[in-house]
Amino acid sequence: MKTYSIALIPGDGIGTAVTEAAFAVLEKAAAGNFRLLGTTFPWSCAFYKETGTMMPEDGIATLRGFDAILLGAVGWPAEVPDSVSLHGLLLPIRKAFVQYANIRPHRLLPGVEGPLRAEGFDILCIRENTEGEYSGAGGRVHQGTADEVAVETSIFTRTGVERILRFGFEKARARSGRLASVTKSNAQKYSMVFWDEMTRKLAAEYPDVEVTSYHIDAMAARMVMAPESLDVVVASNLFGDILTDLGAAIQGGLGFAASANINPDRSAPSMFEPVHGSAPDIAHLGIANPIAAIWSGAMMLDHLGEREAAARVMAAIERTTARGIGVRPGKDRTEAIAAAVLAALD
User: Residue 306: what pLDDT?
Assistant: First the structure.
C-alpha cells in the first residue's frame, strides 16, 4: 500500500482544531487504498514565545523530506506581530520550496448562500506566491525620529512573472479557455507594465485561450457585479491576496476558502492551508468551520495523484453543506461539521 508522509503544522488559534478535523477526513478517505503518515510539528506563535523563532533552524531541511505539508493557521497578533509570524514560518516555506503558484478556488457549495445574487460562478484564482510585493526588500532609516523613512520594494523577475502566467494559461486551457490577468499598469508603470507585456507575449503561445487584462480595481468590481463572467484569474502576490479574500466573501465566507501552495515541478513538497487565519476571537469557542481545511486537504490528495479520494472528499463536503451543516458561521460546532463530513464519506 502506498504511503505518503504528511507534515502537519496546526499552528495557532483555530488552526489546531481544523487541522485535526481535516486530517481525520483525509485518513478515512485513504483507508484501504493508500496510507497517510502524519507528523505534527508545534511551530507557532507559542513556539516563538518559548524559543524566539517560529521554527527551528533546520525546519526547512526537516520539511523537505515530506510528500506534502498541511498547515492550519499562523498568527496571534496580540502576542507576536504578524510581520514576525508571517516572515518566520509561512513565507520562508513558500520561498524555500519554490511554491510559486498559490491556487484558491471560489464557488458556492450546495446549501451555502453568498451575499450576491449571482450563484453560478466558479473562479480559480492563481496568485504569484514567492516575490512581487511580498519580497521583503526594503528597510527603515532614522527610526523613531521626525525624519523616519520606510521603503518597501516590489521585486518582479522575468522568471517569476513568466512562470506564474504560464501556469495560469495552462489552467485556463484545461478549463474554459478564458484567462483574466490583473495589474494596475495605469499607475505602476514599471512592474505592472512589465506584467502586461509578458501576458501579451505568452498569449501568442496560447491562441486557444481568450485573455483579458483588467486593472485591480475593475477586477474587484467585476467579482462583485459579474463573478459568473470569470474563470481563471492570475495576479501578483499582493493583488492575488486581496482578490482571494473578496473571493472568499462572495463564496459565503472564509470558512469555505481553501488554498494550495504548489511547487509545480515537484522538486519540493507543496503546502495546503485554509485561507481563514487563526481567528483568535473565536479560537476558544469550538465553532471554527473546518470545511476550508478539509477542502484544502482534498486539493492535497489531488496533487498527490489520489484524484478519486479527493473527489470523494469534495462530494462528502457537498453532501454535508447540502444538508445545511456548516453553512452559517457559528451555527455548528467544529466537531459536528467534521463528523457530518466523515459520515458522508460512507
Answer: 98
DSSP letter string over 102-171?
EEEEEEPPTTPPPSSS----EEEEEEE-SSEEEEEEEEEESTTSTT-EEEEEEE--HHHHHHHHHHHHHH
One-letter amino acid at 229 equals S
The chain-wide mean pLDDT, for the chain, equals 96
User: Rounded to whole angstroms, how far apart are CA atoms 300 and 294?
Assistant: 10
Three cell numbers written together for 237: 502576490
Give the mean pLDDT of 197-204: 98
DSSP 319-331: HHHHTTTT-STTT
| Secondary structure tally for the chain: helices H, strands E | 12, 12
For residue 22, what is its C-alpha cell?
A: 481535516
Q: Which residue has the cell 526594503?
A: 138
Mean pLDDT value of segment 195-200: 98
> In the sheet that 34-40 helps form, which strands lie side by side, from edge to edge?
34-40, 2-11, 68-73, 270-274, 258-262, 101-107, 122-128, 232-235, 178-183, 210-215
- What are the angstrom distances between the C-alpha of 3 and each of 27, 31, 113, 291? 11, 11, 38, 24
Residues 66 and 4: their CA atoms lie apart, in Å, by 8
Per-residue pLDDT of 262-291, as tens digits, reads: 999 999 999 999 999 999 999 999 999 999
Average pLDDT over residues 76-85: 94
Question: Whose CA is closest to 280, among 38, 85, 7, 22?
Answer: 85
First to last CA, the chain: 21
d(CA 340, CA 109): 15
Q: For residue 117, is pLDDT > 90?
A: no
Rounded CA-CA distance 182/199 in Å is 10
Q: Is the pTM of this model over 0.85?
A: yes
Residue 191, pLDDT score: 96
DSSP 180: E
